[in-house]
TrEMBL record:
<feature type="domain" description="YgjP-like metallopeptidase">
    <location>
        <begin position="39"/>
        <end position="240"/>
    </location>
</feature>
<dbReference type="InterPro" id="IPR053136">
    <property type="entry name" value="UTP_pyrophosphatase-like"/>
</dbReference>
<protein>
    <recommendedName>
        <fullName>YgjP-like metallopeptidase domain-containing protein</fullName>
    </recommendedName>
</protein>
<dbReference type="InterPro" id="IPR002725">
    <property type="entry name" value="YgjP-like_metallopeptidase"/>
</dbReference>
<dbReference type="Pfam" id="PF01863">
    <property type="entry name" value="YgjP-like"/>
</dbReference>
Length: 252
């Protein structure tokens, strides 16, 4: 394992070194961070920082490389995931209702900011001098479309279930696609508007059925399968494409 010269301190409680390790024949750079607060070795992979290895201050360096080799499949998988994300970002494409659209920003005098859907393209119209507002314009439009579409799908899916609920909220949750509160309020992530209709319907059915069965027991999943027989495919789609629904704004 070779050490690169860069080294820095972080808030006086940790030190970070840039290092290299060979994983499955590939040279991988990572940041080794010694932390006084860490109790054990921790691996993190992110779009911004790549691979980070956090270790306690007294952790033996001789143990680091064997652990990285043991976890190489997970590490390389995560790195490939973010490399694919960066490639998609460079292509400036986002999803809307399950379809890929190229994003084009156009400056138009007098507009307050809006989006037009053209064949294979989302055209962002932004006011002069506010080109940096493109992401906000697109998010605002996505939220508005999500509110219309999700409320419609709640009515459609619940037509046969005939369940009583209170209100439907469209939110910006970071870790959830939807939830059902004790007050019988249904909460949905606005980013779902980027998913295919069958995936949206699955999430809607999922939250509606929590009105009957609040947990994730086998009984609950049996109810889900009865209403949404392809729910496993929908969950797989979200697992595979969920990052594209969350990181679209980095395109702009």
């Amino acid at each position: 394992m070779s050490i690169l010269p860069a080294s820095k301190k972080n808030n006086g409680s940790s030190k970070s070194d840039c290092r290299l390790v060979n994983l499955a024949g590939r040279e991988v750079a990572y940041s080794l961070i010694r932390s006084q607060k860490a109790k054990s070795l921790r691996l993190m992979v992110s779009n911004e920082k790549g691979l980070e290895v956090v270790i306690p201050s007294n952790f033996s360096l001789d143990l680091v490389e064997p652990i990285l080799n043991k976890k190489q499949k997970w590490i390389l998988g995560k790195l490939a995931y973010f490399e694919q994300l960066k490639q998609q970002q460079n292509e400036r494409k986002v999803l809307y209702r399950g379809r890929e659209y190229e994003v084009e920003t156009r400056v138009v005098k007098g507009t307050a900011g809006t989006v037009k859907v053209e064949e294979g393209k989302l055209l962002l119209l932004v006011p002069a001098g506010a080109e940096g507002s493109a992401a906000a314009v697109l998010e605002g439009w996505f939220r508005a479309m999500a509110r219309l579409l999700i409320n419609q799908r709640v009515r459609v899916v619940n037509k046969e279930l005939n369940l009583e609920f209170n209100r439907v909220f469209i939110r910006g949750q970071k870790t959830r696609w939807g939830s059902c509160s004790r007050r019988k309020n249904l909460n949905f992530n606005w980013r779902l508007v980027m998913a295919p209709l069958q995936v949206i319907d699955y999430i809607v059915a999922h939250e509606l059925l929590h009105l009957i069965q609040p947990d994730h027991s086998q009984k609950f999943w049996s109810l889900v399968e009865r209403v949404c027989p392809d729910y496993k495919d929908c969950r797989k789609w979200l697992k595979t494409n969920g990052h594209r629904l969350k990181f679209w704004f980095e395109l702009l």
